Amino acid sequence: MNNVIVRLSQISEDVIRLFKKSKEIGLQMHEELLKVTNELYTVMKTYHMYHAESISAESKLKEAEKQEEKQFNKSGDLSMNLLRHEDRPQRRSSVKKIEKMKEKRQAKYSENKLKCTKARNDYLLNLAATNAAISKYYIHDVSDLIDCCDLGFHASLARTFRTYLSAEYNLETSRHEGLDVIENAVDNLDSRSDKHTVMDMCNQVFCPPLKFEFQPHMGDEVCQVSAQQPVQTELLMRYHQLQSRLATLKIENEEVRKTLDATMQTLQDMLTVEDFDVSDAFQHSRSTESVKSAASETYMSKINIAKRRANQQETEMFYFTNDNSDASVIYRLRLQ
């Protein structure tokens, strides 16, 4: 988990750093586009100005041509012979003025037209360059900027989560292996085998000790029960008494044994009840309230558990109080 946290922290640092760098590059691109558009606006205004001047010069030239044409028309209508001699110089001066004005306006128009043509060419070239720059920005640069912002992000994030998934899958595998080990151990639980194993391991504690040997006193060599008179009658009487008592104890012990067997079976049933299935508590299709309600009515509810514990302790108390109460007495009587 620490590995995943470190990787996520590194990814965060990389994203912030790359974003700042990409933002700087993006601002530079915006400044370049602004510069290009400002240049285009300046060139456009220059073109509009020269074009307006060219139109004005053309208009003035046409006006001069009209005046010239009007003057020629007048000259054609009036015969020179009809004009008085003193009006001829004045007429020539007027024609020269018109021709001179036309030449000046023609020169001005040509000059303005040339300027307009250059300005238009400059505007068209800048317009194409500006459109190309804007097109390049939106088609290529924006995509490249986004790529720079998340450079390696998806790959790093994928590696991080694959690390997490690998850890979880291995943890799940280890958990399943551990569950298999526990299940195998549960299947192999055997109280009788465990008891024998413990007794074998501690044989010095559980092995019966040596029998007590007869210890003769001051040279007494008799080591068996003597049944001769006068103790024979006493021994026979004692024998019959022991037999009678032994028969009575056997009957009582048999009844107690039956009761204890039934009690043991009850304890076994209590201890081996199959109450380990808790799948109902993990039913996601049902609401939380219904799950809680179902759990309260099942065998594992707190009330039922308390009742079972009380019954179990009561049964255990009865069993251990009455177990083997007369068995040792019967065994001794048999030996006697």
How would you characterize the overall build of this protein?
InterPro entries: AH/BAR_dom_sf, F_BAR_dom, SLIT-ROBO_RhoGAP. This is SLIT-ROBO Rho GTPase activating protein 3. The protein folds into two domains: about 150 residues, Orthogonal Bundle (Helix Hairpins), CATH 1.10.287; about 100 residues. About 80% of the residues lie in helices and about 0% in strands. It is built from nine helices and no strands. Helix 6 packs antiparallel against helix 9. The longest helix is centred in the first third of the chain and has 76 residues. The chain starts with a helix and ends with a helix.
Question: Keywords for this structure?
Answer:
single chain, 336 residues, mainly alpha, 2 domains, Helix Hairpins
Biggest β-sheet, characterized?
A: none
Measured as a percent range, the helix fraction is over 70%
CATH architecture of the largest domain: Orthogonal Bundle
* Helix and strand composition category: mainly alpha
Distance between the termini: 75 Å
- Encode the helix/strand succession as letters: HHHHHHHHH
Low-confidence stretches: 81-86
Strand content: under 5%
What count of domains describes the coordinates?
2
Spatial shape: rod-shaped
Q: pLDDT average, as an integer?
A: 79
Here the CATH topology of the largest domain equals Helix Hairpins
| SS field, number of helical segments | 9
- For the secondary structure, the number of strands is 0
Cα gyration radius (Å)? 62 Å
